[in-house]
Structure formats: C-alpha cells, structure tokens
Amino acid sequence: MAKVYIMSGLPFSGKSTLSKSLSKYLDIPRISFDETWLEIEKERGSIPGSDAIEQWRYVCKVCEDKTKQYLENGTSVVYDNLGSSKKHREEIKELASESKAESKIIYVDVSKDEVTKRREKNLNTKERHQVSDENFDTALKQFEPPSEGETYLAYNPNEEVSDWLDREFGNRSKLERE
C-alpha cells in the first residue's frame, strides 16, 4: 500500500536534508514545498495570489495535487513541508486516506534555540534560501509539534541519519516500506 511520509519540524531543523535521505533510502519521490515554490517562480515569474497567504495556499495545493497523484498511482512519497500544525498534518493524512494510502509523520525534533542559531549561520553562509524575520518568528510561535494521538517517528539530528534510517526502516522489505 502506498504511503505518504509527512515531514514536520521548524524551519532550519533539517527536514529537507532528512526528507532527501528518506526519499533516497526508500527509493520514492519527494515533494518539496520550497522546491515547488522556486519551480513555479521560475516557470511563471511569480507565484499566483494577491498576498503571501494566497501564494502559500497556491503552492500547498500544487504540492498536495502532486502527492495525491503519486498515491493514487500506488506510489509512496515524501511530503516535505513544515507540517507545522496538527490541522495541516491531518489534511495530508486525509488526502492519503482518500487515495487509499497510509500516512506517517516524520518529526525532526530540534529546539527553537538551535534553529535560531542555524538561521543566523545561514545569514552568512547562504547555504539555503533565507526565511524572513516575520515568517521565521511566526513559525516559531505557531508551530505545533506532533502530540499524543498522532502517530509519528521522531528524528533527533544528534543521531546519524543513516543509523536512524536503518533502525526505523532497515528491517522491512521494500514492499513493506512502500
């Protein structure tokens, strides 16, 4: 049965890095909000919408449509977005259910202090796109980590990604992983 792996964590927590490793490890596609945003900007020149909220919704919809298409074709997928609210995670879980697929939340457990340090470092290194002060502060204030009642796997970046992947996914056959 197809499965969507829903990434969840603060900006600069390492979600994209982990999602790329997970996608490669399981040999499944990855849908990235950030990359989709950049692709749309490149193709169209700008993101449709009259304000930042409408633009965010537009890109989310594109990502959700791609995810649904994979799931309906029986292909598992990694969904790399903030997964910042229980409501949004539930929406993706519902999308999976409607597509006769399963879902699993992957929570990247990094403190607010640590993501703030990583963001400050990125101001100098520019290793990835920068998040505005306003959006970063909003994300820190509004983030809801997975809670009781939500089934999830937690990843702590103090652990080697390969060790975590082997522990969480290595003892399963390819069919069970997908």
UniProtKB/TrEMBL annotation:
Gene3D superfamilies the UniProt entry points to:
P-loop containing nucleotide triphosphate hydrolases
InterPro entries per UniProt: P-loop_NTPase (IPR027417)
Name any one Pfam family assigned in the record.
AAA_33
Q: Source organism's superkingdom?
A: Bacteria
Q: Where is this region: Disordered?
A: 124-157
PANTHER family on file: OS07G0160300 PROTEIN
The name on file for this protein is: ATP-binding protein
Organism per entry: uncultured bacterium
